[in-house]
Amino acid sequence: MESADRKTCKLCGESFSSRSEKTLFEEAGEWLAEDFWQDSGDLCSRCLENRGRLAMMYLHERNS
Ligand SMILES: [Zn+2]
């Protein structure tokens, strides 16, 4: 069986499939991907999560 929405991550090269349920960090990463990098949909959930986590830490530091 082949999944139609199988993709290769732009950052780490992992193959991944888009899922419907997302973690908080994944959502943050996806939001950032759409707003700043315009590469939403090209990253695996792990990279989205990493990006979201880093960005949230960064933004949190800037705002406090
Ligand atoms: Zn990745």
Round the mean pLDDT to the nearest integer and report it: 80
Q: Report the structural category.
A: mainly alpha
- How many helices? The count is 2
Distance between the termini: 50 Å
- The coarse silhouette is elongated
Proportion of β residues? 5-15%
Number of strands: 2
Q: Give the low-pLDDT segments.
A: none
Hetero groups: zinc ion
Describe the sheet with the most strands: 2 strands, antiparallel
Supply the number of structural domains.
Answer: 1
- Helix proportion of residues, in percent? 40-55%
- The main sheet orders its strands as 1-2
H and E order = EEHH
Radius of gyration: 13 Å
Structure description:
By secondary structure, the chain is mainly α. The protein has a two-stranded antiparallel sheet. A hairpin with a 6-residue loop joins strand 1 and strand 2. The longest helix has 19 residues. The N and C termini lie far apart (50 Å). The structure holds zinc ion.
Please provide a brief summary of the model.
This protein has 64 residues and is mainly alpha-helical.
